Amino acid sequence: MAASLLGRRGQSVLVVEKGNFGGTCVNFGCVPSIFLHDLTLLLSRGKEQDRHFGIVRDQKTANYVERVMELRGRLSEAGEELVRSSGADIMKGEATIQNDFVVIGGVRVGYERLILASGSTPDLSLKKEEAVYNEDQLAELDSVPETMIVVGGGYAGVEISQFYAKLGSRVTLLTEGEVVGNLGSRLSHLVREALSWDGVEVKEHVHVSAVKAKEVLTNLGSFKAQIVLLAAGRKPNLPSGINVLGVQLSPKGVIVDNHMRTSNPRVWAAGDIISKDFHRNAHSAMAEAIVASSNIVGRDLAVSYDAIPDLIYTDPEIGVVGDSKTVETWAEFPFRANTRAIISGFTEGYVKIGFDSFGRVVYGEAVGQWIEEFLNLLSILVKFRVKKEDLSNLTLLHPSLGESIISAVRSLSNEDVERPLRRI
Ligand SMILES: Cc1cc2nc3c(=O)[nH]c(=O)nc-3n(C[C@H](O)[C@H](O)[C@H](O)COP(=O)(O)OP(=O)(O)OC[C@H]3O[C@@H](n4cnc5c(N)ncnc54)[C@H](O)[C@@H]3O)c2cc1C
């Protein structure tokens, strides 16, 4: 992203990439996991939907590994082409840092300014044997194991556990705290219920002491399975020699301000490599790359994290945006009372909107299926602090899921015309 933007602005840019273009998102993260999300949703909801629409057909199967590989190859090529067409140069290989040079396969390249965007890798400090899988190897599991242990109850751990449970594995999820604990106990409970519904055995507050190929040792004893997969956090991918740059580091990564400046005036950083607690996702990495590549050529942009959405691709999907701490008034509407949801049969879930003391939207939350675009809509409301009265005067498509936002707001003043449907 940063390279193609700078290339298009006529800057002389070199991108160094040791793997495939597209990084974690395309090759190991978003693409394989959302593919599995959609696939398992279709498989598990297939029967329900078939009944809903009156369709009769044979059992479905899917050759998903081949399809994931094909997809990520296509998207990675598209990413590389985007960089090339911007006029930026590309060198394939691992970049290390030596004094004022970046070294790639023995070739020293000087630079005026540097953007560090080498991402993160799974934290494997618990791993004792090579055959243990990690969250970046999702696309390498070419068959569905009979039994599986997933270590880590963050976003990746809960998504992977549910995918494989839906595909037929007996999955045990072991996690130190509560599943997706950073989202608070209400949403954590919701995720726990959804996983249990699909047959995942969820063990929380477990202390894992060692992870072997087919066994995990914990304070609750030993757990055995055909495959063990680690999703227990990530660490920054710091290029070798980074210390010569003198940039400030924390255990979580490179320390930057909101302008993506490091403590070295010639060095910027963006994405998973930076030290941050939240928003380790592809869209934040892109926002940070845009800011870094603009500021490096003299602009003064800052990343504002207040309206960046987060979505967990579980079934149901769970999305949040904004800060609930300043909420004074809540508006909520269940999808089972929304006409579009009733027509499609996907009635599980709700939308929740939080207003501050000035009646402005500061928080949005949605639970349900296919809620990505819905959450994008909520992000716009949060970003522009849209006022309650403006929202209740808004007309949106009918029937559509987005209408639930207006229904939620109108229900605050008893103007909710869809109210009778709540009984459905
Ligand atoms: C299982 C999983 C699911 C995910 N799902 C989602 C999702 O649905 N939505 C979402 O927004 N985010 C998701 N993420 C997170 C998302 O993938 C990352 O936040 C995002 O990729 C970070 O982008 P980045 O550019 O900082 O790093 P990366 O995408 O990791 O890119 C860094 C690149 O730098 C290269 N590199 C590293 N070191 C060097 C070096 N020394 N020399 C040369 N090249 C180097 C790497 O090969 C890599 O290509 C998921 C992550 C995982 C693991």
- Name the hetero compounds present: flavin-adenine dinucleotide
Number of helical segments with 4 or more residues: 11
Assess the beta-strand content as a share of residues. Answer: 15-25%
Distance between the termini: 47 Å
Structural descriptors:
424 residues, alpha/beta, FAD/NAD(P)-binding domain, Enolase-like, domain 1, 5-stranded parallel beta sheet, 5-stranded antiparallel beta sheet, 11 helices, 23% strand, disordered C terminus, binds flavin-adenine dinucleotide
Secondary structure: elements and pairs:
Elements: H1 2-8, E1 14-17, H2 23-27, H3 30-53, H4 64-85, E2 89-92, E3 95-98, E4 101-104, E5 107-110, E6 114-116, E7 120-122, E8 133-134, E9 147-151, H5 155-167, E10 170-174, H6 185-197, E11 201-203, E12 208-211, E13 215-218, E14 221-224, E15 227-230, E16 234-236, E17 249-250, E18 253-254, E19 267-269, H7 282-295, E20 310-312, E21 317-322, E22 329-334, H8 339-344, E23 350-355, E24 361-368, H9 372-383, H10 388-392, H11 403-412
Parallel strand pairs: 1-2, 6-19, 8-15, 9-10, 9-15, 10-11
Antiparallel strand pairs: 3-4, 4-5, 7-16, 12-13, 13-14, 17-18, 20-21, 21-24, 22-23, 23-24
Flavin-adenine dinucleotide is lined by residues 16-19, 23-25, 28-30, 33-34, 94-95, 117-119, 135-136, 138, 156, 237, 239, 271-273, 280-283, 285, 313.
